[in-house]
Structure formats: structure tokens, C-alpha cells
Write a structure and sequence with these properties.
about 750 residues; 6-stranded mixed barrel; alpha+beta; 21 helices; about 50% helix; 22 strands; 12-stranded mixed β-sheet
Length: about 750
């Protein structure tokens, strides 16, 4: 009871210090708990959706003729196959699609129609129930609801045909905007009616028995010579694509929570050292009357244990409150998390872990009392704390600016046109996709000829992608999606080496190089189908390795497409730039109208729009994290400057009283404190800018490396980095300093005479 009363009295006597300690502990618990809460919720929601939708373990997309008997024979021979199905997907020309008042002409996704699957890979509603649409109805991918403001009852037009939007669907394969395709669900009767309006491709899907080796199955599928005119996707890749968009935001919050934990430990350390210095004589008295070191430690530690418990509870509540709006998009895409008990347990454990780390630091600092004898505590003075008391102002200012700049710089990087160089795409202005048509090569050649005659075009290049079987040095086979063309035009960013220039050179994306176990200088055999029916083997040297976060990060570049090469072209892309950059929008609109018919199979898009659509949701998520981080940094900086300047004023109270006795005014003394504060705050701002760009870039690179983006560099907005963010930090710091300096007015001139502090 006595100990409890002493704790309460001490908190009342040191309200500011106690409040600051409580805030540090609460914010740390909140941020770490929030990151775990969001990550566990996202992971569980994705797993639950994929389980209820029965996502395929292996999916092969295929365009062209299909030998179903061959597929059935392969399936029956494989003991690891549980189920197999072939789903039709009707590709539509985006220029022919509109929903309500929204045209899809600028939409970069491969949009198409499908029917509900029979055996697995179900499309589900908001309750994750399998949807069975009625005739005349269409279910819209949920990711389009907010983007286009679509409501149930809106009319979807495909050419001259109309369907009514009956609701929204979750697609465990294609929910994320990072997935390049989107499926609209219609009835079997409507699919047959609309079939002439599109180009059909197939999704060859397999569910494997538990414990099966997916990579071994994929190899067997390729070796069997089965249909593979399209990319192959595995369960793990689907899950990663689902998690990346919101996962990046969570990783940013986790990074911020680590920074806040460091700030909290530093600030509380200085609070404790100052408190111990202030209580030095009291500690000496306790030691002199025989109170043990353990009891003295317990006395001080009990206070911080109480504040930690209150801070942890508050942090958990704030994490739940904050997590609701931040998790809204995740719930919309993937549904409610199922195992809420485990998720909340993980969040509480994370908050407790943060508090445990802080308390360990507290205990280590309190042990400093063990080294003091009663005589030293009563009669000696320690100026160490006083000398270093201004240091936290510099460190915390730098940390606050770091917390603001890192998420903002990630946002500006993803939003910049130059980011395409991390996507396996050169930095061009306009991209023309030629696919969803039976004669891709002929159409690409005609399109290239048309562009060559356009005087407004400064430079252009045609890239043709096909699937090639390769043989690795160890004899294993591996299918590569190789993009062939002149890679000297609009080159991508290479982490090692350079682009391929000769027929016997090949460049690999980082993830492909890692999976194939190849590095620059290694050799791989690429098998080409020849027009005479034979196979030509080309020994290709890996000349370069580049960043790519498209197609799951698994691509390659070569110069293999020759006149005698009969390897089917799966799709073609033309990249180009104009003589006048200002004409890009008008030029794109003109060509979109010119090639609006489905038969053309042409899609013209500004690269800036492509980036916005592909990573728009990721950018919005990181913007939300950036806003939370800026708010937290502002609160922390306000509290820290307020606290430490008040502590400085308290320690120098006698000196300030003497100055008043000598005729100095409160304004004079406050001005001196403000000048000194600026001497520590301004270097902190400079250090924060450096940390936000250099170490921050390294940390961001670690996050983006999971997407396949290597050799990452920030693309910063100078106005924010060098002006707006530092100005915000400076204003908050000066505001806190102004509030702290109000204490100077309460200092009286007679206090230096030992008359005591004015009440």
C-alpha cells in the first residue's frame, strides 16, 4: 500500500515527465501492435479466401488450340493431382467496355468474362460464398468498386450488349491490381451469347494433393509438351501478389515502430538519469538508513512498470482503433480474418514485447544506483547528465524527420515515371500492347509500319515475347518467357552486366537468375522452334541481370527472334517516345480511337497511367502509412522537445534566477534558450534529411527486394524533402519550445538566495 501511494505521489509531483514516459510507451506499443495486427489480419484473410475459393496450386494460361485428351491423359498418370479443370476466359477489348458512366478505354488490365468454375477456383461474394449469376447479370471485381464508383444496378456495356451489375466478386487469383488480369462473372448463357465479342484463352488449373512438390509438377508439365502458350503461375506466387500491395504499407509501419522504439528507449533513459540525479540525496539517505539496493531498484522500477502497463493497454486500444480504417481495403479485397483470437493475441504479444524491451532498458539504467555509495550520493555531484541533456533534441529531431521522409520517398518513387526501369520496362512515354488476337505478329508488323510513318514519333522499339524451353548446366529444363527485340532502345536498369546485343546473349530478371541458379557469365541452352519443324539449340551467355516486378518478377530478354524462328509470339509490345512531350496525351487518345475495335487487339497507354493503375492502391496504402507516420513523428517531437527543454530549465533554475536578480528579463532568458535549442534542432534536421535519403533508401530497398526490384534508388520530391518536411519539423519543435519557455516566467529572482522555488 505504501509503495502504491509513493508511486502515485511521484507521478503527481512529476506530471510532465510521467506523461511523457506514458506517451512514449503507449505509442511504441500501438505501432508495433498495429503492424502485427494488420499483418496477421492480412495473412489470415488471404489464407481464408484462398482456402474457401480453392485456389489452384498450378495454373497454366494458354492461348490457341487445346488438346484436352492429352491433358486428361497426363492428369490420370499423375498421382499428385487431386483435381484438374479447364476454365475459359473471354478477353475483351477495354475500349468496348463501360460500366455506368465509366469507360475502360484507359484501363491497363486484361479484362474478360468467365463462368463460375465447376470444381475449384471459385469466384465468391462479400461473405466468401460461391456466386451463381442469373442470366443478364454480371459480377464486378471488387477492386473496381471504389476506383470507378460502381454500384449494384449499374449497366455494364460490352459493345452493343448490356448486363446489369448484380454485385461484386472476390477473385483469389486476381484480386490485386498487381495481377494483370481481371475476371467478370456471367452466366453460362450470357458467356455463349457474348463469345463473338472477344478472344478466348484457357486457364488450365490443377489442385495437387497435400505435400506435393509444385516445382516438380511444373517441370513434369513442361517436359510433357502440354499447352503452355502463356505464363504459368503457382499458389505461392498468387499469394505473394495478393499480399504485396497492403504488405508494403504494413512493412513501412513496422519500420516506423522500430524507430519509435529506439526514440522511446533514448528518451526514457534520459528521463531516468535526470530523475536519479535529482533524487541523488534521497537515494543517499535511503542507503544511509540501511535500505538495500534491491529495494531501491524496486521502488523506482515499480513506477515505470505501472506506466508501462497503462501505456501498453492504451497502445493496444489505439492499435485496434487505428487498425480498423487502415484495414478497410484489406477486408474489402479478402474478407474478414477468421482466427480473430489468434490475431488479437499476436497483437497483444507484440505490444508486450515492445514494453518488455523498454522495461529492460529502464532496469539497466536504474541499476546505476547500485554503484553509488551513501557518501557519494549525499555529497558528490555528477554533471554528466547536464552536459548531454541537449543531445536528445538532435537525435529525436533527426528520427522524426526520418519517420516522415522514408514512407514519403517510397510513395514518390512508386509514383514517378522513372520507376518503370524497375519493372523490366525502359523509360518510354507510351506503351502499345498487341495481344488478344490470333495474328499477333502480323498486327505488330502493321502497327510498327504505321508508327514509322508518324513524324511525331522520335523513337520506338518492338518487343516480342515467346515461351522458350531452356536447359540449365545441370541438365534440368526450365521454361522462360523471353522478350526479344532491340534492348539498346529504352534500356531497363541492370543490377549486373548489360542488355543482350547478340543472338547468343540473354539477360535474366533477378528472381529468374536466383531460381535457375545462374549468374552473369554462365551459359544456358535455349531451344528455338524452327520453321522446318526442327529445334535449334543456342548456347546463350547470361550477359546481364535486371530488376523486374512484372509477371511475378520472372522474365528474360534476348535477341533470338530471327526470320527462321517459328516459336509462337504470345504478345508484342511497342515502346515509344514523341518529339514533343506535350503531345503524349493527345497522341495516345488519337491512337486509342483509331484502334478501338476488338479485332485490332491493340491497347495504347501512357506509361504514367500504367504505373498509376498497377500501383495506385499500393501508393494509396503507403500514403496512409505516411500520414500516420507524420502524425506520430509530430506528436513525439512535440512531447520530446517540451519535456527536455523543461528539464533543462529545471536544472538551470538557480542560474536563471540569478540572471533575473542581475536584471535580465524572462524574454532575454527565453531568447537564449531558444537560440541554444535551435543549435541542436537544426543539425538534427540536416541529419534527418541525410538519414531519410541514404539509410532510408537502403531500408526501402530491403522491402522492395521482395518484389524483385533490385538496385533501388529513391526518386525524391525536392520540395518535400528539403522544404516541406523540415519546415513541419521545425514548426513543431519551435512550438514545443515556446510552450516549454513559459516556465521561465514563473522563475523568481529570490530563488537563487535559497528562499525556495516559487509556488
Amino acid at each position: 500500500m505504501m509503495n502504491k501511494r509513493m508511486i502515485i505521489n511521484d507521478i503527481k509531483a512529476n506530471r510532465l515527465v510521467s506523461a511523457a514516459t506514458f506517451i512514449f510507451m503507449a505509442v511504441t506499443a500501438m505501432l508495433l501492435g498495429l503492424s502485427i495486427f494488420l499483418f496477421a489480419g492480412l495473412s489470415d484473410s488471404i489464407d481464408r479466401l484462398m482456402a474457401e475459393a480453392e485456389t489452384p496450386d498450378f495454373l497454366q494460361m494458354h492461348t490457341g488450340e487445346l488438346n484436352k485428351k492429352q491433358l486428361m491423359a497426363f492428369t490420370q498418370e499423375r498421382e499428385d493431382v487431386e483435381k484438374m479443370q479447364i476454365c475459359a476466359f473471354l478477353n475483351l477489348q477495354n475500349s468496348q467496355i463501360s460500366i455506368g458512366s465509366n469507360s475502360f478505354v484507359n484501363n491497363m488490365q486484361d479484362n474478360g468474362l468467365c463462368c463460375q468454375s465447376e470444381l475449384f477456383d471459385y469466384l465468391v461474394d462479400a461473405e466468401n460464398k460461391v456466386i451463381q449469376p442469373a442470366e443478364g447479370e454480371v459480377y464486378i471485381p471488387v477492386c473496381y468498386r471504389k476506383e470507378y464508383g460502381i454500384k449494384p444496378g449499374d449497366i455494364m456495356r460490352i459493345g452493343s450488349e448490356e448486363l446489369t451489375a448484380a454485385g461484386f466478386l472476390r477473385d483469389s487469383q486476381m484480386n490485386s491490381m498487381m495481377a494483370s488480369s481481371k475476371r467478370f462473372l456471367v452466366s453460362d448463357a450470357d458467356y455463349e451469347k457474348l463469345r463473338p465479342l472477344g478472344s478466348e484463352e484457357y486457364l488450365i488449373e490443377f489442385r495437387l494433393r497435400e505435400g506435393s512438390d509444385i516445382n516438380a509438377f511444373a517441370t513434369a508439365y513442361r517436359d510433357a509438351g502440354l499447352p503452355d502458350n502463356g505464363p504459368a503461375i503457382t499458389y505461392a506466387l498468387i499469394r505473394m501478389m495478393n499480399a504485396l500491395s497492403d504488405g508494403l504499407m504494413i512493412l513501412v509501419i513496422l519500420l516506423i515502430s522500430v524507430v519509435v522504439l529506439f526514440i522511446s528507449m533514448l528518451c526514457i533513459r534520459y528521463i531516468i538519469l535526470t530523475q536519479l540525479e535529482k533524487d541523488r540525496s534521497d537515494i543517499g539517505m535511503l542507503k544511509a538508513v540501511g535500505i538495500s539496493r534491491q529495494d531501491i531498484r524496486k521502488l523506482y522500477f515499480s513506477k515505470y512498470l505501472f506506466l508501462s502497463a497503462a501505456g501498453c493497454l492504451t497502445g493496444i486500444i489505439l492499435a485496434v482503433i487505428t487498425g480498423q480504417p487502415l484495414g478497410t481495403h484489406m477486408k474489402e479485397l479478402y474478407g474478414e480474418a477468421g482466427n480473430t483470437g489468434l490475431i488479437y493475441s499476436c497483437m497483444i504479444f507484440g505490444s508486450l514485447a515492445a514494453e518488455a524491451i523498454i522495461l529492460l532498458s529502464v532496469y539497466a539504467n536504474i541499476r546505476r544506483t547500485d554503484k553509488m555509495t551513501a557518501v557519494e550520493a549525499l555529497y558528490s555531484k555528477n554533471a554528466q547528465v547536464k552536459k548531454n541533456l541537449w543531445l536528445p533534441a538532435t537525435v529525436i529531431t533527426a528520427a522524426a524527420l526520418f519517420m516522415i521522409l522514408v514512407p514519403w520517398n517510397m510513395r514518390s518513387t512508386l509514383n514517378a515515371p522513372e520507376f518503370v526501369t524497375y519493372m523490366g520496362i525502359g523509360e518510354s512515354q507510351i506503351r502499345i500492347d498487341i495481344r488478344q488476337t490470333d495474328n499477333v505478329e502480323d498486327k505488330a508488323a502493321a502497327m510498327t509500319e504505321e508508327i514509322e510513318q508518324d513524324k511525331r514519333v522520335r523513337d520506338h522499339v518492338l518487343m516480342q515475347t515467346g515461351s522458350y524451353k531452356t536447359v540449365l548446366p545441370d541438365g534440368a529444363s526450365y521454361d522462360l518467357m523471353i522478350e526479344n527485340g532491340d534492348h539498346s532502345r529504352f534500356p531497363v536498369r541492370y543490377t549486373e552486366g548489360r542488355y543482350p546485343e547478340k543472338e547468343n546473349e540473354i539477360a535474366l530478371s533477378v528472381l529468374n537468375a536466383e531460381e535457375m541458379g545462374l549468374k552473369q557469365g554462365d551459359t544456358v541452352i535455349v531451344c528455338r522452334e524452327m520453321k522446318d519443324g526442327g529445334i535449334s539449340e543456342v548456347n546463350c551467355t547470361v550477359c546481364g541481370i535486371y530488376s523486374d516486378i512484372t509477371n511475378g518478377g520472372k522474365t528474360a530478354k534476348g535477341c533470338l527472334k530471327k526470320p527462321d524462328d517459328a516459336t509462337p509470339v504470345m504478345w508484342s509490345i511497342i515502346y515509344l517516345s514523341l518529339c514533343d512531350d506535350q503531345l503524349a496525351g493527345a497522341w495516345t487518345g488519337e491512337y486509342q480511337q483509331r484502334h478501338a475495335s476488338f479485332e485490332d487487339g491493340v491497347r495504347v497507354t501512357l506509361i504514367a497511367d500504367y504505373l498509376k493503375e498497377t500501383y495506385g492502391q499500393t501508393i494509396r496504402n503507403i500514403s496512409n502509412a505516411s500520414a500516420v507516420s507524420a502524425a506520430m513523428s509530430g506528436i513525439i517531437l512535440l512531447v520530446v522537445i517540451l519535456l527536455f527543454l523543461r528539464l533543462v530549465i529545471w536544472r538551470e533554475r538557480s542560474d536563471s534566477s540569478l540572471r533575473k536578480a542581475l536584471g535580465f528579463t524572462s524574454t532575454d532568458i527565453s531568447r537564449d534558450y531558444l537560440k541554444k535549442a535551435l543549435l541542436y534542432i537544426l543539425p538534427g534536421i540536416v541529419l534527418g534529411i541525410f538519414a531519410g535519403i541514404v539509410p532510408g533508401q537502403s531500408l526501402a530497398a530491403m522491402l522492395l527486394r521482395s518484389m524483385g526490384a533490385y538496385s533501388f534508388h529513391f526518386i525524391i520530391e525536392p520540395a518535400v524533402v528539403y522544404a516541406a518536411a523540415p519546415a513541419f519539423v521545425l514548426i513543431v519543435a519551435l512550438g514545443a519550445a515556446h510552450l516549454s519557455l513559459m516556465e521561465v516566467k514563473r522563475i523568481r529572482a529570490y530563488e537563487c538566495l535559497g528562499a525556495g522555488k516559487a509556488k
